[in-house]
Amino acid sequence: MPGNDSTDDVRTDGGGGIVPPDDETPTWSERKERSQGLARLTYEYFERARREDQDLRQESSYVERDVLGFPAWPHEMIRNLALTSFFVGMIILLAATLPPHIAPPANSGSTPLIILPDWYLYWSFGLLKLGPLNPELSLLGGQKLLADQTYGVLANLVIVGMIAVVPFLNKGSARRPVEQPFWAAVGMSGVVFAVTIAALSVKNLVPMDAHLLFDLTFLLPFVGATMTYAILKAMREGYMFDLNRRYYRLRPPK
Amino acid sequence: MSLEPKEDYDREDWMRERDLTTVESMYLTVLMWFDKRLRLVDYLELLEDMYYKINLQMPKSHTEQYNLDNKFWYWYPLYALGSFSTLAYIVAAISGALLGFYYSPAAAAANGQPTVAYESITFIMTDLNFGFFLRSLHRWSAQVMTAAVFLHMLRVYFTGAYKEPRELNWIIGIILISLTMVFGYSGYLLPWDQLAFWAGTIGVNMALSIPLIGEWTAQLLFGGFTLSQATLQRMYILHVFFLPFIVTTVIAIHIGIVWMQGIAEPH
Fold this sequence. Notes:
The complex is a heterodimer of chains A (254) and B (267).
Chain A: H1 28-34, H2 37-59, E1 70-71, H3 72-97, H4 122-127, E2 136-137, E3 143-144, H5 148-169, H6 181-202, H7 210-250
Helix pairs in contact in A: 6-7
Chain B: H1 11-18, H2 22-38, H3 44-53, E1 57-58, H4 62-65, H5 69-72, H6 81-100, H7 116-126, H8 131-158, H9 167-189, H10 194-208, H11 214-222, H12 229-261
Helix pairs in contact in B: 6-8, 7-8, 8-9, 9-12, 10-11
């Protein structure tokens, strides 16, 4: 090291430590502004969104106030703790009073009389028994396009898919079933179908002819949907009657 | 000049002149020790935020604000189903970890003789202190979780809580309910009794009848086209390794989104 021969030690860490930012160093916002491509696009979008929010806030006459509510600590926490202990206690009570048993060890040689999955898979198990609905195509000479079991497995996907598209079909701010009797009816048919298809999968649960059970499995959801629709419509008429009565009392018809 | 290098900011003197209590000075010492190593100061804002959150007031809910409690009180238990299923999940996780100390997924023969897996269940149920209750607790919390998740879905449907800004969470919920059922199914197979074996047989046949990828799925999930040791091993790893990580993460995302968007209350 020229001009510095009094010291023997050599700095190996690059020297100087961390350099503090000077005027040349770009700030973070400058860096963001200088960036390109997707990062730039993101930055521009968020700047724009922030400005829109600001404009909306300035336009509106809404005054933000402190909302007087329940303090999180300790009130809310104590309430949560109480509810949690109650629920966990219920599970412990169930576990203590109704313990599970264990079946004999696995034996591929002896098929048990009743083969069933756990109750929450009954609906899926029932969908495997949709063979009679699998169309025999005359184009294929009375052959089925899919094996019955394949048909049943695909039915699972159809059900899940139907549930998944609901929010993309039904929009708006309506919350109560009375406001949209149609969608409440659709939901009720789904609930009833879940129950009937489960009953179909257990087969011997309901003492009736297998064909009748199969037909009822698909009929009852429609019955349930129709009843729900009718009841909710009637309730809505009732609400409208109340509203109208007040309205007419206010401004009697000539 | 002393040989002992003095601290840059002379914090010890500063602490002495503050005349702190023991608790305060211990707290500060620990804080400074961590700050020196982890640069906590950079995360100070987050820490402050957490500190003040303790004193946060929960905002008034829609029903409180507009005095609708007289109309909607009977909905309230239905609004607890989501947290009820989360609680049941936590109970199942704890009891399942304890059961895992004693269970071994080994020697899955199907000749009617008790296997190692079956023997470990009988050991838990007959010899282990509180084992019978532990298994019962695990099973019931799983059942309760599944039931609560189903009812939670119905509540969300019938109160229209899945609507416009919340579609994403509805989809995540469908994924979660499916994963919950896979959780239950894989756990159902672990005792390797008759019920487990024949439920497993149905599962393999279902997997095999998926078009195009059926055989691949059966290999992946069940380790073959018939039930064997590989099936039990895979169900075990699915049940105690993959699913806990995946489901916990997805639940966190699900609840996080509810937190961000707020609860959709009826009105």
